[in-house]
Amino acid sequence: TPGSSPRNLLDMDTFSKSDPGGWRSRAGEWQGTDTARQPGSAPLSAVVVLFVQVSGSSEWKEFGRTEVIDNTLNPDFVRKFVLDYYFEEKQNLRFDVPLGSHSAFFGAQDFLGQAFVALGEVIGSQRGRLERPLTGVPGKRCGTILLLAEELSNCRDIVTMQLCANKLDKKDFFGKSDPFLVFYRSNEDGTFTICHKTEVVKNTLNPVWQPFTIPVRALCNGDYDRTVKIDVYDWDRDGSHDFIGEFATSYRELSRAQSQFTVYEVLNPRKKCKKKKYVNSGTVTLLSFSVESEFTFVDYIRGGTQLNFTVAIDFTASNGECTWCLGGSPSSWGWPWGRCNGHCAAGLPSQPTSLHYASPYQLSAYALALKAVGEIIQDYDSDKLFPAYGFGAKVPPDGKISHQFPLNNNVENPSCAGIEGVLESYLQSLRTVQLYGPTNFAPVINQVAGTAAQVTDGSQYHVLLIITDGVISDMLQTKEAIVTASSLPMSIIIVGVGPAEFEAMEELDGDEVRLSSRGRYAERDIVQFVPFRDYVDDSGNQVLSMARLAKDVLAEIPEQLLSYMKTRDIKPRRADPE
């Protein structure tokens, strides 16, 4: 829920303060603009207009407007914009501050400035507060806009409770009863929706059910005083379960059991009407009741968790398709990995047959994958410095094969400034190294894992992006490295480029079968693999291709981060007070 507060707006009125905003006509249209106010005229109205960029295009659509505030250069707006947040998408926002914005189509002379920002930048900023300069009026300082984002509370608490019963009615002819409980949440229209069933406890009138967990929103939809109805049944094999009785309560009443036992009478309305001496059909006792908060990805980001992004790019010779090499037999290639040896023209990045080839009109698949993922993750990294490595190339000056060389040629500090810095270093490396081989993943995975192991308190989480053509040479070592890394605060994204088959990558992904190495299983699923070719837009729209790719490869990161925090019982830090 982003809120906005412009500060120190450009004063463009002659006789009073500028009022960014507008007035509504009776028809509800926004009309006209005044750049100066005459003495004695009624004050104009302040407003901020939010536009949202359509994913994969350059089109902006108006999302909403704040309320109007009169005659101030520092308006504080109450109305909030409620947006759906997706970590895996680049959600670009534009805040326009019109000067008396009587028209939705105001020109440069009609507004006090605008600010462009990604929603992820606001959420990833300290305490969810981001101040941006307003721009758009040449030669003028337009002031700033303060954006605040907070996650809407959706009753994320989870309840664990245990119940038992005493002296329930006997329903079975040859035995006692096989009781179970059914919980119902009441709806606004007076109906009830089933929300939980306990297990069946066989042949007893005094059952003790196992503790169970249920989200508060499922139990009462966040309304602590809403009725919760509980029916008690005797289980029958044919499904015609016998009704024993019922009782009603509420979340608020149940929560009192945190300090004391609560006993409910189980009543059968039909028996109560028929039998004058009817008391009840037994009792149910709430033995325990506890509440825990279910933390979200945003809770950790707002609490200061930083995402540290590392890039590893495949510089092996298999990225070039060589018809001469591929035409011979494996023994004639002189190449132990059965691929082009990199000495022919096809293996050169300057040739269109290379997967590293970037034409004057479009980026290579490697560069597209890097931008698609990096431009989203960088919003959650405060210093915007990203270690970037290459692997599988002969590196100057001695021409030795390296599986972990810094793209910026700085061994002491391999970090690049922003995604543009990574791209620049990548393109520079293509001009200085020789594509070679083999394709080894383990060294760079172990490098990032070593860094991740230094801080495991939840304040840092590492994301390694590996972009490769998919022909892996050190499968056993890579599996061992991933299994070890699965206990650390890190995730691995693998993007496969080119036409190769990616069976090995699918195994590393571990979605179907948990990855294992030498009898040891991965503690968590930390690998996400996607083939880039599945996301290429048929019309050649690279922006749309990148948006599609990022959406899928980043979709699992929030859950992977949460799984690490849960296994380590790490709770989000409270944001510093303002």
Automatic annotation (TrEMBL):
Positions of the C2 domain: 126-264
Annotated GO biological process: cellular response to calcium ion
Tell me the SMART domains matching this sequence: C2, VWA
SUPFAM superfamilies in the record: C2 domain (Calcium/lipid-binding domain, CaLB), vWA-like
Q: Positions of the region Disordered?
A: 1-40
The residue ranges crossing the membrane are none
Q: Which GO terms describe its cellular component?
A: plasma membrane
GO terms for molecular function, please?
calcium-dependent phospholipid binding; metal ion binding
Q: Which residues form a coiled coil?
A: none
What is the protein named?
A: CPNE9 protein
- Origin organism is Edolisoma coerulescens
